[in-house]
């Protein structure tokens, strides 16, 4: 099991320690307004710091936002080029803010080198910042993450067996989690997906087994603080049994 966030203790009662978001609806938002896909993505990416600020003010300690899936890499070259430019601008904005500690989750090696470098740079420039842990999932897919973790674990123990009992599955669970991209991070308490789609699409597949889910009809660029608060209120009203 992933270790709980050290920030969780500061969260107000009823407020999730970790909120994960699927940022869905940029292209539909643009189409509804007669705008270009690039304008839709720019508006959506520009919303990310706003949501971090709202979460911080509501007492959320950790926020993970999924901005690009592996499947999204199959989109047209011009759309991807526009997206990548928005990502670079986002990284610079987050680094300059010095307000949130950024961690990037995903296969950066699949991105163009300048884009990967921008994400690596924002991590480096914010690693000492105290405040909300802001995770960015980019070039991310939950199945790929699990397969990569399994391969890493197999490589680790190929030449030697573990010292711990091989029959202790709880030990293996923790060992496996330490090879995921989210190693050391708390699992999400609440997952919010915008645009009305009611599925996770491979988002944090391992980490969301006990997460509460909230589906918002609003397209991502139109997502408001009121929408966030409605999701948080829904979470606070639920009785989490966690399988017990």
TrEMBL record:
Residues that hold Mg(2+) according to the record: 24, 212
Cofactor: how and how many bound: Binds 2 magnesium ions per subunit.
Names of required cofactors: Mg(2+)
Residues of the active site: 24, 72 (proton acceptor)
One GO MF term: transferase activity
EC number(s) stated in the UniProt entry for this protein: 2.5.1.-
Keywords: Magnesium, Metal-binding, Transferase
Chain residues that bind substrate: 25-29, 41, 75, 193, 199-201
Keyword Lipid biosynthesis among UniProt keywords: no
Enzyme class, spelled out: transferase
Xref: Pfam families: Prenyltransf
Keyword Metal-binding: yes
NCBIfam families: uppS (TIGR00055)
Subunit (UniProt): Homodimer.
Family: Belongs to the UPP synthase family. Z-FPP synthase subfamily.
Job description of the protein: Catalyzes the condensation of isopentenyl diphosphate (IPP) with allylic pyrophosphates generating different type of terpenoids.
Protein's name according to its UniProt entry: Isoprenyl transferase
Organism of this sequence: Streptomyces poriferorum
Lineage: Bacteria, Bacillati, Actinomycetota, Actinomycetes, Kitasatosporales
Recorded name of the encoding gene: uppS
């Amino acid at each position: 099991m992933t270790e709980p966030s050290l920030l969780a203790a500061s969260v107000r009662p009823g407020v999730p320690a970790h909120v994960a978001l699927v940022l869905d609806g940029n292209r539909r938002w643009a189409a509804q307004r007669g705008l270009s896909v690039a304008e839709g993505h720019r508006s959506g990416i520009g919303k990310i710091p706003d949501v971090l600020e709202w979460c911080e003010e509501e007492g959320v300690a950790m926020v993970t936002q999924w901005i690009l899936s592996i499947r999204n890499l199959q989109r047209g070259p011009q759309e991807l080029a526009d997206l990548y430019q928005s990502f670079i601008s986002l990284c610079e904005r987050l680094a300059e803010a010095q307000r949130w500690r950024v961690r990037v989750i995903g296969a950066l090696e699949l991105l163009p080198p300048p884009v990967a470098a921008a994400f690596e740079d924002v991590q480096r420039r914010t690693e000492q910042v105290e405040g909300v842990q802001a995770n960015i999932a980019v070039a991310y897919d939950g199945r790929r993450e699990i397969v990569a973790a399994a391969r890493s674990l197999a490589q680790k123990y190929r030449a030697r067996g573990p010292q711990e009992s091989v029959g202790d599955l709880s030990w293996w669970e923790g060992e496996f989690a330490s090879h995921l991209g989210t190693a050391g991070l708390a699992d999400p308490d609440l997952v919010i997906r915008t645009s009305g789609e009611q599925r996770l699409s491979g988002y944090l597949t391992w980490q969301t087994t006990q997460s509460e889910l909230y589906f918002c009809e609003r397209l991502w660029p139109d997502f408001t603080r009121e929408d966030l608060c409605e999701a948080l209120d829904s979470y606070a009203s639920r009785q989490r049994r966690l399988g017990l």
